[in-house]
Write a structure and sequence with these properties.
The chain has about 260 residues and is α/β, with parallel strands linked by helices. It contains ten helices and twelve strands. The protein has a six-stranded mixed beta sheet with strand order 6-7-8-3-9-10, sandwiched between helices. It has a four-stranded antiparallel beta sheet with strand order 2-1-4-5, with helices on one face. Strands 11-12 form a two-stranded antiparallel ribbon.
């Protein structure tokens, strides 16, 4: 379990996180939602100690995060940010091997090779291991990055908008894989998402942010609420029921046109 207590962060005079108090529960998918600039990505950065908070404390399994060394945190928390995309020409297997660095420090041992093979197999990209990343489709490339995270073999996984640039098929496939990782591998996953319906379909818990604050959090049934979502996104939503599930419809009310003779 990860606990954030009174966490604040700022870029210059602009406060991005404002006294955040939140608990990330184990073995579930927690979706972070909110408009651009709400503080979601910064929250992931602070959670993984890529960013130091200005105020507050973070407890990782009841241990203060600030007392842990970076290499020890990297054995417990893996994060994939949007800016992680590499600009060098590298094979899939070499990319996945990077995930073992916190354990091997670049000197791969038998256990490291085993974890790499397991990650390639789990993500079903073993047949692509010698292909270069720039030769892959967007969906295949994202699978390779997730395999790198899997090879890191951490309890906690943070993903910053992993569905960006994926079509519907690959987005559904990716979220299904994340669900399997929670169920089969006992992972705890925090994912930044923009599509509310994907969050509702695949997450276990939703945290809504606005202006650097936690506005609401709770179960899918609770969070799929017009008043909550209208406030979070400053938009007029419609919540409908489909096959016993709540679905958010992004609609704009048509203006009434008066006919004149």
């Amino acid at each position: 379990m990860i606990e954030m207590k009174e966490i604040s962060h700022a870029y210059g005079d602009f406060k991005v996180l404002d006294h955040i108090n939140v608990t990330i529960k184990e073995e579930q998918i927690t979706a972070l939602i909110g408009a651009n600039g709400a503080g979601k990505s910064t929250l992931l950065g602070v959670l993984s100690r890529l960013l130091e908070p200005l105020e507050g404390d973070i407890l990782l399994d009841q241990v203060p995060l600030k007392t842990l060394k970076s290499k020890d945190i990297a054995k417990k928390i893996a994060i994939l940010k949007q800016t992680n995309q590499l600009n060098i020409r590298i094979t899939v297997k070499d990319l996945v091997s990077f995930g073992r660095f916190p354990h091997s420090q670049g000197r791969l041992q038998k256990e490291d090779h085993q974890k790499i093979e397991e990650a390639l197999e789990y993500m079903k990209i073993k047949d692509l291991e010698n292909r270069y990343l720039d030769e892959l489709s967007g969906g295949q490339r994202q699978r390779a990055y997730i395999a790198m995270i899997l090879a890191q073999d951490t309890k906690y996984i943070f993903l910053d908008e992993p569905l960006n640039n994926l079509d519907m098929r690959y987005a559904v496939e990716m979220m299904t894989i994340l669900q399997k990782m929670v169920k089969e591998l006992k992972k705890t996953i925090v994912v930044v998402m923009h599509d509310i319906n994907f969050a509702a379909a695949f997450a276990d818990h939703i945290i809504a942010m606005k202006d650097g604050k936690i506005i609401e959090e709770g179960s899918i049934d609770y969070m799929m609420d017009k008043a909550i979502l209208d406030h979070v996104f400053d938009h007029d939503f419609c919540i409908a029921g489909v096959n016993g599930r709540k679905v958010c419809i992004y609609y704009q009310q048509k203006e009434t046109v008066l006919e004149t003779e």
